[in-house]
Amino acid sequence: MIREQNFRCSQGEIDIIGYHQGCLVFFEVKYRRDETYGSPAEAVGRAKQNKICRCADYYLYRHSIPEGQPVRFDVVAVCGQRISWIRNAFAYRPRERRG
Question: Residue 98: inside a domain, yes or no?
Fold first, then answer.
């Protein structure tokens, strides 16, 4: 069940937020016409994952989602006509501390 699309905050954007089998899922959707410059899933690197996690933190806070709510981060990779749904594409990444 989709709860929200194109959720934006100062931390970034999450393409789709919804529930799947009781888990709150944050989806990143990537499209490539072909794999000339790599697969769509490869475009979701560490920096993008960090931005998605920060945005998810804000979403959880803003919507008062209980702390025990299971969450996961999925990628929907679209390459031409082929669609791949990668569940648990990456783990939650806590904010990296500097200094």
Answer: no
**Residue 10 maps to which CATH number?**
3.40.1350.10
Domain that holds residue 86: 2-90
C-alpha to C-alpha distance for 90 and 62, rounded to whole angstroms: 23
Residue 75 bridge partners (DSSP): 28, 86
Question: Would you call 40 exposed, middle or buried from its count of C-beta atoms within 10 A (0-12, 13-18, 19+)?
Answer: buried
77 within domain boundaries: yes
Hey, which residues does 83 pair with through a beta bridge? Answer: 78
pTM of the model: 0.89
pLDDT in tens, 25-82: 999 999 998 888 888 988 899 999 999 999 999 999 999 999 889 999 999 999 999 9
